[in-house]
Design a protein that fits this description.
By secondary structure, this protein is an alpha/beta fold. It has helices spanning 11-44, 70-83, 114-122, 181-192, 205-216, 238-241, 244-252, 263-268, 270-279, 295-300, 311-319, 348-356, 368-373, 379-392, 399-425; strands spanning 58-64, 87-91, 106-110, 125-131, 146-153, 173-176, 198-201, 226-229, 256-259, 286-288, 303-306, 323-325, 357-359.
């Protein structure tokens, strides 16, 4: 008789085991590397002060975890390319646009996804590493002992505390889209007793890219009135919570309805999406939008309906049109914002939303055509949108250059300090 043994490892334990494995592998890797360098030094006949060069060392590194973040890094790559400075661009998207950009100084390399990518990153030898990926030193991604500086760039023009717990705690610097984001980061650093990070406001590179792309899109002829539904994902999000009760009365309005699910929805709540897609399969005035860039749907829309998604700010800043939001209750406990005063209820994006948006209540869904027709895009809303844009999207059009400046100046500063230290101890 053959007995089948089933072993289940929960995600937390799996992450811990992977971390242990990576730690051991990294230790062996660096010990082996050090031994090879010492052997090269011995065979070359050089003195101890003339250490062999680490050929795997990259002064500047970008890591892109997926296609949705390509626009964050595109202006940075272009800035390095224009300055003729080598940049290692590691990506987990094998179809990344960087491969077809014909760069001479920016070197794109596919390093796999998930754990395969983390293994590569955990063994880096680099000067400054820039990424949007949070959770450094928290989950599988660990700080490499041979990296001088880790920089995190926010991938949305909204609060920096809307990451899962400790998302940016262990970076050396965080690059902000607006000055307002610094206050809450400093508060958490003090509460947690961790060293202060370098906080630099550089602007929002992906908004710079999207604005240029959107300006180039021709205006739609014979434009029908269009409502864009663009929610976040999860049980508290618009589609998951309301689904048909919102979409059916919208469809019955006769207007064009564009539904743009959050990219994570396909992965985490595909069953819900499949059911809705099937329900409205024969509905000619409802479209599903899965384009990588959200600008095409936003350009067509006359009004957006969302929840707590960051796309509200993309639409507000790029289109300057009315936004309606359903005040879904978001559980902030898994997020850094929960540890702010009032458990994050008054963070910037929540307080600003009440000024730039129009709340839509679920009991209004059945009469939604009349509700939308009764909306007035008044002067107060327009002024609030302009103010929010100025606060959250600083240095418009300059982010790529400012990020490149930061990376280059940071490495120069670190290397100068190292040289000064060597001189003092000589």
């Amino acid at each position: 008789m053959i007995l089948a043994l089933s072993l289940y490892i929960d995600p937390g334990t799996g992450s811990m085991l992977f971390s242990i494995f990576i730690g051991a592998a990294a230790t062996l890797f660096f010990l082996g590397k050090a031994a090879i360098l010492k052997l090269k030094l011995f065979l070359s006949g050089k003195k101890a002060g003339e250490a062999a060069t680490d050929t795997s060392y990259k002064p500047y590194v970008i890591y892109n975890e997926g296609k949705q973040y390509q626009n964050v890094f595109k202006p940075v790559c272009e800035a390095f390319e224009a300055r003729k400075i080598p940049l290692a661009y590691y990506t987990s998207d094998e179809h990344d646009a960087a491969f077809s950009a014909n760069y001479e100084y920016v070197k794109p390399e596919f390093i796999g996804e998930g754990n395969r990518a983390f293994v590569h990153l955990n063994m880096l030898s680099a000067g400054v590493v820039l990424m949007t990926t949070p959770g450094l030193q928290v989950y599988q991604m660990k700080r490499s002992k041979n990296v001088k500086h880790y920089a995190h760039i926010l991938h949305a023009a909204s609060d920096a505390t809307m990451y899962r717990l400790f998302g940016i705690d262990f970076f050396d610097s965080v690059l902000l889209s607006g000055d307002y984001q610094a206050k809450d980061i400093r508060y958490l650093e003090e509460q947690r007793g961790i060293p202060q990070k370098e906080l630099v406001t550089v602007g929002c590179p992906y908004l710079d890219v999207l604005k240029a792309k959107m300006d180039a899109i021709p205006t739609e002829e014979n434009h029908p009135f269009t409502v864009l539904i663009s929610p976040s994902w999860g049980p508290s999000a618009l589609l998951s919570k309301y689904g048909e009760s919102l979409l059916t009365p919208l469809v019955e309005s006769g207007w064009r309805i564009i539904v743009r699910p959050h990219p994570q929805s396909k992965k985490s709540e595909g069953e819900m999406l499949d059911a809705l897609t099937k329900k409205y399969a024969d509905t000619p005035n409802l479209e599903w939008d899965y384009e990588r860039d959200n600008i095409y749907a936003m350009k067509k829309a006359d009004i957006m309906i969302s929840d707590f998604s960051g796309i509200i700010y993309d639409y507000t800043f790029l289109c300057d049109k009315p936004v309606m939001y359903v005040n879904a209750e978001l559980n902030l406990k898994p997020y850094d914002a929960w540890f702010l005063p009032d458990n994050g209820k008054n963070i910037w994006q929540f307080s600003v939303l009440k000024k730039i948006g129009i709340e839509l209540k679920s009991e209004q869904f059945s009469d939604i055509k009349n509700v939308i027709q009764g909306i007035s895009d008044n002067e107060n809303l327009a002024e609030a949108r302009a103010k929010a844009k100025a606060e959250a999207w600083q240095h418009q059009g300059e982010a790529g250059e400012k990020i490149a400046d930061f990376m280059i100046q940071t490495l120069s500063r670190i290397d100068n300090k190292t040289e000064e230290s060597k001189i003092k101890t000589a």
